[in-house]
Automatic annotation (TrEMBL):
Signal peptide range in chain numbering: 1-23
Source organism of this protein record: Rhodoplanes serenus
Protein name, as recorded: PQQ-dependent sugar dehydrogenase
PANTHER family cross-referenced by the UniProt entry: ALDOSE SUGAR DEHYDROGENASE YLII, HEDGEHOG-INTERACTING PROTEIN
Recorded superkingdom: Bacteria
Residue ranges of domain Glucose/Sorbosone dehydrogenase in the record: 53-376
Length: 381
């Protein structure tokens, strides 16, 4: 086991893969503009950069450069001209196995002054791996002063269901979505972080008003539990309330509004079925569990989420944008309070790992491919 883990770590640190070599060359990606029809009219789809190996997380810097993670364990800067930097030094070793690797990246709310960024990743260790959160100072070619502020407990075997999105709350605390590592029952165990959403301070300490603080049978970081694999989260721009989505099993992807201390039922209830076809009781059969705001069967395989708050794309203000892996595009939802009033599918012809609303009213999307791309959607010029 230890030898295998060391081999995986070494692989994750290597940059000599075909896609990475193309990105390291530093040549701007050739334009690949096309148009896609939407309810708002046609949008131009431009390839900002390519040659990225399964890009996973994206943050837009104040100078409009993009900070992007690659799942095998690399962090890169992408200039406005599409030029991709070599891998930044100082990134911790990751378990690059199956769904595991380097995951999300988020800017500190005071990034313009502090240059602090946060990353999530699959951290190897005794017993297997777990999701971890680290903070560091971003330089031009490296991360420095890196400190791990949170480790999902316990570490377990396997490479699936890490979750790992970061969402900053308006009070300066941060939510981290955590999958149940494909272990099922621990999602109901408050003594673990598996299948939970946690809330911590930027230094990793626990806010005193977390719902399970003081309970001997519970991890104090836990905000909500009974989640399967939440791969997207965002704050509602008007209410400041956290919304998340999570992958269902065979059917039953969910959109949830996780409330403090609430149990969302996995694996005791689900809108889907087990992969072997066995039924799972539907959520309404167990009213003690919080139910989803919306669910999808067939699945969309949601990953990444953003609220659109600009006016550049007509009619999109207030919409929720969700990256779709199996649905191969962006799913746009319209909302009235906590009710979904409409859904539009924007086909992009690729698995979309993440979606980010840009500062100039554009939308960025990451394609989950060995030769992954950063796409930019905006009205045609």
């Amino acid at each position: 086991m230890r030898k295998g883990v060391l081999m995986l770590i070494a692989a994750s640190m290597a940059a000599a893969t075909p896609g990475a070599a193309q990105a390291q060359a530093g040549a701007p990606a050739a334009p690949a503009d096309r148009r896609v029809d939407t309810e708002a009219g046609p949008l131009a789809v431009h390839t900002v950069a390519e040659g990225l190996v399964h890009p996973w997380g994206l943050a837009v810097l104040p100078d409009r450069r993009l900070l992007v993670t690659e799942r095998p364990g690399r962090l890169r800067l992408v200039g406005p001209d599409g030029r991709v930097s070599p891998p930044l030094a100082g990134v911790p070793a990751v378990l690059a196995q199956s769904q595991g690797g380097l995951h999300d990246v988020a800017l500190d709310p005071d990034f313009a002054n502090s240059r602090v960024v946060y990353i999530t990743y699959a951290e190897p260790g005794d017993g297997g791996a777990s999701a971890a959160v680290a903070r560091a100072v971003l330089g031009e070619d490296r991360l420095s002063d890196l400190k791990v502020i949170f480790r999902q407990q316990p570490k377990v075997s396997g490479g699936n269901h890490f979750g790992s999105r970061i969402v900053f709350r308006r009070d300066g605390t941060l939510f981290v979505t955590l999958g149940e590592r494909f272990k099922f029952d621990p999602a109901q165990d408050l003594g673990t972080h598996l299948g939970k959403i946690v809330r911590i301070r930027p230094d990793g300490s626990v806010p005193a008003d977390n719902p399970f603080v003081g309970r001997k049978d519970a991890r104090p970081e836990i905000w909500s539990y009974g989640h399967r694999n939440p791969l997207g989260g965002a704050l509602h721009p008007d209410t400041g309330v956290l919304w998340v989505h999570e992958m269902g099993p065979m059917g039953g992807d969910e959109l949830n509004i996780p409330q403090a201390g609430k149990n969302y039922g996995w694996p005791l209830v689900s809108w889907g079925k087990h992969y072997d076809g066995r039924d799972i009781p539907d959520p309404p059969t167990r009213p003690e569990f919080a139910d989803a705001v919306r669910h999808w069967t067939p699945v969309i395989s949601p990953s990444g989420m953003a609220f659109y708050t600009a006016d550049r794309i007509r009619g999109w203000r207030g919409s929720m944008l969700i990256g779709g892996l199996s649905s191969r595009g962006i799913v746009r939802l319209t909302l009235d309070g906590e009710r979904v009033t409409g859904e539009e599918r924007i086909p992009l012809g690729a698995r979309i790992r993440h979606v980010v609303a840009g500062p100039d009213g554009e939308v960025f999307a990451l394609t989950d491919e060995p030769n992954g791309r950063i796409l930019r959607l905006a009205p045609p010029e």
